[in-house]
Specification:
The chain has 135 residues and is α+β, with helices and mostly antiparallel strands. It is built from two helices and four strands. The radius of gyration is 16 Å and the shape is globular. Keywords: Signal. It holds the Pfam family DUF6049.
């Protein structure tokens, strides 16, 4: 019997896509051509790549709640961004996106996992913009 509550996996996939988008913007600066950007293909990683030890910007998911989201509910994600470079981070954008289509076979899942770039398909469900507070 279908459940009236959305599954947690699509929400986590959307959050992962948002984190990948934000990390690419943070590392490379503001991307004005973001909607038309093509994601770079990687050989088949099973998870997002681990940043180099000398990467200037890192992002960590601190918390994600609730674990089960009701229709009309609010998903709260806390992300910690660390800037180890000497340049300040300005004009940041973080976008949350999701897809309504579901992965129904292993080939589609493998293709989705192989994507290492930002997923910019469809409109952003939520956008957070601004300059981070000075530390």
């Amino acid at each position: 019997m279908p459940s009236s509550q959305p599954a947690v996996r699509p929400v986590l996939a959307a959050l992962l896509a948002a984190l990948v988008i934000a990390s690419s913007v943070l590392v490379s600066g503001p991307a004005t051509a973001l909607p038309g950007a093509q994601a770079a293909r990687v050989e088949s990683p099973s998870a997002p790549s681990v940043p180099d030890d000398d990467a200037p910007v890192t992002m960590d998911l601190v918390s994600l709640s609730p674990t089960s989201l009701t229709p009309g509910g609010t998903l709260r994600a806390e992300v910690e961004v660390t800037n180890a470079s000497s340049a300040p981070l300005t004009d940041l954008d973080l976008e949350l996106r999701t897809r309504t289509s579901r992965v129904t076979d292993r080939e589609a899942l493998a293709s989705w996992q192989a994507e290492a770039g930002p997923d910019v398909e469809g409109p952003a469900l939520a956008t957070a913009s601004g300059t981070p507070p000075a530390s």
